[in-house]
Amino acid sequence: MREMSHPHLPSHLTRLAQRYGRIYTLRCGNSRDLVSGGGCSVSLGDYSQPWRAQRRLVHGALQRCSHTALHSTIQRQALLLREESQVLIGYNGSAVDLSEDFTVAASNVITMLMFEKEYDKESAELQRLHSCLNKIVSLWGSPWISALDSFPLLRKLPNRPFSRLLEEVARRDDIIGTLLKEFKLTDTHLHMATVDLLIGGTETTAAWLNWAVAFLLHRPQVQSRVYEEMCEVLEDRYPTYSDRYRLPILSALISEVLRMRPVAPLAVPHRALRDSSIAGYFIPKDTVIIPNLFGAHHDPAVWSEPYSFRPERFLEAGGGCARSLLAFGGGARLCLGEAVAKMELFLFTAYLLRDFQFVSCGKEASLPDLMGEASVVLKVKSYQVIAVPRPDGPNQDRAEDHRTHQN
Ligand code: HEM
C-alpha cells in the first residue's frame, strides 16, 4: 500500500524494477479485487464476452469515422487554436498556461466525432464536463482510492476522496445522460463507451500537447529544426497527415515526447483471468498486472541515455527504435483511440509549430518542471508560455485550399 501511494508512481516502480528485475510483485493486503472493476466500461471492464463485443463496437465506430472527416475535424480545431476565435493570437505575446486551450481542442475532436458538437471555451456545459472529468481522473490516482482495491472493507468507513469520487461520477452520469438523451440513446454500454472516449480522448491528448511544448521550451533548437523542416518541405502550406513521412524531424519529436512522458504511464491495470506466465514467471489467476510503460521507455537495455530528451534517436539507424515505443499499450487492451490520437498529435503539433514560436518567460527558473505529476494521466505541472506568431505563417485561405488535397 505504501508503495502505491508514492507521489510519482511510474518513476518509483521503475526504480523498483532496477532493484528487483523487470517483473516483480507488490503485495497490497489480501484481496486482489479492483475497486474500479468498471462495470460496463471498456477501459476498466474485465475481459469477457460482452466486453469484447463492446470493444468491437467502439472500435468499429471509430473506424467508420472516415479518414477525411477525422482529418478535417482535427485541422479545424488546430486552426481554431490559432486564430478563428483568436485563441493563441489573442494572447498577444503574454505568458499564459495553455492547458485549458489544449483540453478544449482535444475534447472538441471527440465530441465532434461522437455528436457533431463543438463547444466554445466559455461554454458553461463544457466547463462543467471538463471540471468533472478532471476531478475523476485526479481522484482515481489518489492513494485513498487505490487503497480500496486492496482493502474493500475500507469502503464502509468514511473516506472523503471516495465520497467525492462518487459525487463526481454522479455528475458525470448526469452530463453524459443528457447528451445521450439528446440523441435518443440510453443503453448503459453506450453510456460507458462515451465516458471512455471522452476521458481517454481528452485528458491524454491535451496532456501530451502540454508536454510537447514544455520539452520544446527546454530545447528551443529542436523547435527551430522542426520549423525549418516544415518550411522546406511544405513551403507555404499547412501539412496534412500524409506529409508525416516527409517530416521526419517532426515525427521524431512526437515519438520522443511519447517515449519520455507516456501520458498513460501505467496503462490500465490488467487482471489475469487464469493461471498464466510472463517471461517465465508464474502469474496466479486474479493477479492484477500493472504494465509500467514509463519504465519500459526508460529501460537502458533498450534505449541509450534513456533519461535524455533526444528526438534524433528516432532518426538514427533507420528509426528502428520506434518499434520499442509502447505509449499506447499493447495486446487485447491496446488504446482504442491510437489512430485518432496519432493523427491529432501530428496535426496539432504541426499547425502549432508552423504558426507559433513557443518561448519561455525569460528566467531560467520559469522553465517547466519536466518531472510532472503522475496520476492515472502523467501531466506536466502548470507552466506559463508565450506563443509568438511566426511572421510568415501560412494564411487561412491557403489552409482552406489545402484541405481539398488531403488523403
Ligand atoms: C496521446 C494520446 C494517447 C495515449 C498515449 C493513450 C494511451 C493509452 C494506453 C496506454 C491505454 C491502456 C492500454 C493497455 O492497458 O494496454 C489506453 C487505453 C484506452 N484509450 Fe488511449 N491514449 C491516447 C489517446 C486516446 C484517444 C484520443 C482515445 C479516444 C478516441 C483513447 C481511448 C482509449 C480507450 C477507450 C482505452 C481503453 C481500451 C481498453 O481497455 O480496451 N485514447 N490509451
From TrEMBL:
GO terms for molecular function: heme binding; iron ion binding; steroid 17-alpha-monooxygenase activity; steroid 21-monooxygenase activity; steroid binding. GO terms for biological process: hormone biosynthetic process; progesterone metabolic process; steroid biosynthetic process. Its EC number is 1.14.14.16. It is a peripheral membrane protein. The keyword Membrane applies. Residues 395-407 have a biased composition (Basic and acidic residues). Gene3D superfamilies: Cytochrome P450. It is found in: Endoplasmic reticulum membrane. This is Steroid 21-hydroxylase. It comes from Muraenolepis orangiensis.
